């Protein structure tokens, strides 16, 4: 693979400002700090949620990650998952780890009613609001935070490419082509829909070297994974510790197989974990997924990979080189 058109001396936006891509270091590319539900939280607060305690927990966890060698975390919490930049900013101000914000919309079938009436050819009309929102998040900043998004996040799952999901995907592709900001996906590998995602995005001009097909590690279907790799995208092996979606034994075995086949340059590893998630709250996780934590790779999975034949060079490629390539915005002018 080439560098995918990454701009020379590229910088990546973080909560504390731009960071040179070469300084990102060991990077977790698919994580969350807080997964919330604003309407529920406002009227029906979760008994385990305390914002101040959640901030303290995240600060302690990220400082521990720094001590373990992690330097950058991509927070893929976007609208639809309760993105709260002001809350994350409180954490970012107190930790050494770089935090990268994301934009997009998390929905797997339909969007909120607002989008049914706004946009070209719709009741109220106007420009496509998803493009306007994503573009502003990337180029100006999210809300009044001044924090620019460094990743676009899209979702397709069992319902497939519905009309609303197609709108989100198309808007993300449009903003990528304009800005070069990378795209990551939530996929359902059991339906092999990463191939649909890769095809849709690349047909609209998205640089495959700046695309991650998320949750690919849920699958051990090597024919499917190899077909995805042939498109030039990167596979997100990003749910280590998430026991209810697959075993770590299977995930490790698949990574080792792909490394043996020479695909280190197209793999990234992460957890898809959160310091608090209303979807799977802390008390549930403690019982059902005790290793689904942000330090699981560093403490348990990386040693397993090395013991079973992965090389230090492989880990460096997957955790440092590939995130640097992905997060450095693609050269926009090269595709005009």
UniProtKB/TrEMBL annotation:
Modified residues (N6-carboxylysine): 153
Cited InterPro entries: AryldialkylPase_Zn-BS, Metal_Hydrolase, Phosphotriesterase
Signal peptide: none
Domain of life: Bacteria
A Pfam family recorded for this sequence: PTE
Keywords: Hydrolase, Metal-binding
PROSITE patterns attached to this UniProt entry: PHOSPHOTRIESTERASE_1, PHOSPHOTRIESTERASE_2
Family in the record: Belongs to the metallo-dependent hydrolases superfamily. Phosphotriesterase family.
Name listed for the protein in its UniProt record: Phosphotriesterase
Taxonomic source organism: Nocardioides vastitatis
């Amino acid at each position: 693979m080439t560098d995918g058109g990454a701009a020379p001396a590229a910088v990546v936006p973080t909560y504390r400002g731009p960071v040179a891509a070469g300084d990102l270091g060991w990077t977790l590319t698919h994580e969350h700090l807080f997964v919330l539900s604003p309407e529920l939280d406002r009227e029906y607060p979760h008994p385990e949620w305390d914002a101040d305690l959640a901030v303290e927990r995240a600060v302690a966890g990220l400082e521990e990650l720094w001590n373990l060698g992690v330097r950058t975390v991509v927070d893929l919490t976007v609208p639809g998952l309760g993105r709260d930049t002001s809350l994350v900013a409180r954490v970012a101000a107190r930790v050494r780890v770089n935090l990268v914000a994301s934009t997009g919309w998390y929905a797997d079938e339909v969007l909120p009613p607002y989008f049914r009436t706004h946009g070209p050819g719709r009741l109220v009309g106007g420009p496509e609001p998803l493009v306007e929102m994503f573009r502003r998040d990337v180029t100006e900043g999210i809300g009044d935070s001044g924090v620019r998004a460094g990743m676009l996040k899209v979702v397709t799952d069992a319902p497939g490419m519905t009309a609303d999901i197609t709108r989100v995907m198309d808007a993300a592709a449009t903003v990528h082509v304009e800005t070069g900001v990378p795209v990551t996906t939530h996929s359902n590998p059991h339906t092999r829909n990463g191939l649909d995602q890769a095809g849709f995005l690349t047909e609209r001009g998205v640089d495959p070297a700046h695309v991650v097909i998320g949750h690919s590690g849920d699958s051990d279907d090597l024919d499917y994974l190899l077909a995805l790799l042939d498109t030039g995208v990167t596979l997100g092996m990003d749910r280590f510790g998430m026991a209810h979606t697959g075993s770590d034994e299977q995930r490790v075995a698949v990574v080792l197989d792909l490394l043996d086949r020479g695909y280190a340059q197209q793999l990234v590893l992460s957890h898809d974990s959160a310091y608090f998630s209303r979807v799977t709250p802390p008390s549930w996780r403690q019982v059902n997924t005790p290793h689904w934590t942000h330090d699981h790779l560093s403490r348990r999975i990386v040693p397993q990979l090395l013991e079973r034949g992965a090389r230090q060079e492989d880990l460096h490629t997957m955790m440092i080189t590939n995130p640097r390539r992905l997060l450095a915005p693609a050269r926009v002018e090269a595709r005009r």
